[in-house]
Amino acid sequence: MSRPPNIRAVGCTLIIVAAVHAQPVIYLVRGSVFEPDGITQAPRCTLVHITDAQAGCFGYTHTGRNQSGQYDYNLSNCGAQSGDYILVEAFDLTRAGSNSGFLVPMAATYVDVTLSYVGTHFVPTIQSLPTLTVGEDEAYTYKITPGVLLYYLSWVYPDTDLTYQLTEAPAPMTIEEVSEQWGLWFDYCYQTNGLIRWSPTNDDVGLHTVSVYVEDSLGASATQTFELEVTPVNDAPEITSQPVVAVVQYQWYHYDVAAVDIDNQNAVPYDDDTLTFSLGTHPNGMEINPQTGEITWRPTLAGDYDVVVEVSDGEAIASQEFTVSVEADTDGDSVGDSYDNCPSCFNPDQEDTDGDGIGDRCDSGSVPCAPGVCIPTLSAWGMVAMAALMLAAGAVVVSRRRAAG
User: Fold this and answer.
1) What is the Cα 47 distance to its own chain's centre?
2) CB count, 10 Å around CB of 283?
3) Are 19 and 5 in contact (CB under 8 A)?
4) Predicted model pTM
5) What is the dihedral of CA 174, 178, 182, 184, to 10 degrees?
6) What is the pLDDT of residues 68-79, one digit of tens each?
7) Residue 253: burial class (beta carbons within 10 Å; 0-12, 13-18, 19+)
8) I need a labelling partner for 115 at 20 to 30 A (CA). Which of 9, 188, 258, 357 fits?
């Protein structure tokens, strides 16, 4: 515990007793790792394992990238003491070596190691863990980090070439090799990691098996297999039909609205949606079947009418806007005035014997007629005959009245 200075006066003498703090002892282990000839230094990023059995501590480091073959490790924080026996072991992919020494306080303990014998070829492992779920339409990435199992601990793989491939994966999932550095900026190594990329769609909802294969330059390999689940995300429905935009006055209007929901088109049933149809803006009397989407209406007034159709899957809504033009039908014969060859006279058969574009009911010689009624005009002689008939009929009526009187 830190204590403040203790100041005491003894007679006329002032005595200051200061607290003393023990400084930690530094135990550095340094050295070089050599090739089997004992002259050239080992490749950069060669693994180095240092054990202090008396203190019960150990650690890993590597030979430097900028100072190839040299290493530096601090044992001060694991209970090491002066005079402890230490064992230094070094490994590359195919060779190993060891040497020992005794810790020296406050100064570096130098222990050089020569890779003097054939060691066990370190088989790569995949020490990273994947994310096992991804949402539909989301970007999925997984960085694969290789390592080696050394003394039951995982450590980065030595600085060597690694290749990656997907032996089983959904299309179009891809994997690429990404070179990354690790260590300090002035003393670092490169490691080749794998990077998986994928953008699942609605068709990919469900479980997928992914198998990753990594191989080093000497043919040693590792595999990681996992199940990746793509979870559904609700997609809005879509109206696919084209609206009916014209109808004749007094006639029935029909439009069968068609819609799709891509959530109902993938291989899994648990994200299927039920679609419901409804009308937003619409004229009086227009109706829609909420299950089938059939629209019916019988307009009585000519004009243009705005319509908004909506379809919902319970979460999202799609809409379609259009205008229905109601064609006037003055004579009520179910033929719109703009197409009727006799719009003022009821003539559903649209007969036009002389082919002049004017219906027989409206040819020259006709008199105006009301909807549903047409009175053809008689010729001049016909008019005379009609007058004579009317006069004769009147005379008969008068004579009968006289006889009765």
Assistant:
1) 42
2) 17
3) yes
4) 0.61
5) -140
6) 789 989 888 888
7) buried
8) 188
